[in-house]
Amino acid sequence: MAIQCDTQILSILDRAQQGKAPSRDECVQLLDLADSSLEAAMMRGVADSIARQRFHAPMLQGQIGIEFKPCSADCQFCSFAESFTQFDPFKMAPEKLREHTKAFAESGKPLTALFLMMPHEFDYEFLLDAVRDVRKIISPECRLVVNIGDFTETQAKELKETGVTGAYHVLRLQEGVCTKISREERIATIENVKNSGLDWYYCCEPIGPEHSSEEIADQILLGREYECYQHAAMRRVNFGHSPLKANGSISELRMANVVAVIALAMIENPELTSIAVHEPSGAGLLAGANTLYAESGGNPRDTKEETSKGRGHTMQSCAKMLEEAGWSF
């Protein structure tokens, strides 16, 4: 018995292979596909093929959480949220930061970017000192990216002058509902990043089963509108005290389908250099992603103070996952 395919989906995928990105309504249609359907499998395959032709090589990146504390942004998906965090305030000592940086830089695997992560309210001068320390250790070719709260264009330009090359900044799903930060604040910082000349790293996150295809499509397409340097997908990680825990989690297969839609939606974006999947996922690497992150220090998706002893992957485990997915260094 022949298996019938949805001709509208086939048309979207055919046009994607010709370099035409799907519209917003078509992205919703793709996200509505049953995760294990033939059409979804074909979508992942087309997205994977396009990504491998476009990116040619994998990217292995690292992140160090250098500061954490009870945070007034109170994001319901973050282990630093002041209403339920179990963390005491912490700033990484300079010698410990250098130790973590060397571990990434000297892992024997090619580190393409190193991220410094801090909570929404962060010590700006502490960050500048950390940037100077890290820049002395990593190679000039390694990109240095900040993952911090909202900041001004003046600060963005100063960070660039100090050695930062990019910023990870996201308008999260249900921003202002599950967080105490306004959408306008997040967009303003994205514009500051772009106006300063820093590379803008973006992500559709943190995805839960309660998020509609329309919500997810709109989050994805913000990256297209502002022309991000890197796009990504991240599923929400639920932990003990999170008020969102009862909503459950999406599967890796669902996340892979979101990755595939990102890869197709971003076909016509000339700024895009890579697509990441968080946390590291072999399924995502077969659906359009070419980038994974290893992590150490604090992590908003972990309840351990040192995430390398918890959820955080190592450079070696990320490299192995990329190689298992057919990406060659």
UniProtKB/TrEMBL annotation:
Family annotation (CDD domains): Radical_SAM (cd01335)
Database matches in InterPro entries: Aldolase_TIM (IPR013785), rSAM (IPR007197), rSAM_sf (IPR058240)
Listed name of the protein: Biotin synthase
Keywords for the protein's UniProt record, in alphabetical order: Iron, Iron-sulfur, Metal-binding, S-adenosyl-L-methionine
Xref: Gene3D superfamilies: Aldolase class I
Disordered as annotated region, ranges: 294-314
GO molecular function, one term: catalytic activity
Named cofactor requirement(s): [4Fe-4S] cluster
Species for this entry: Desulfobaculum bizertense DSM 18034
Highest rank taxon of the organism: Bacteria
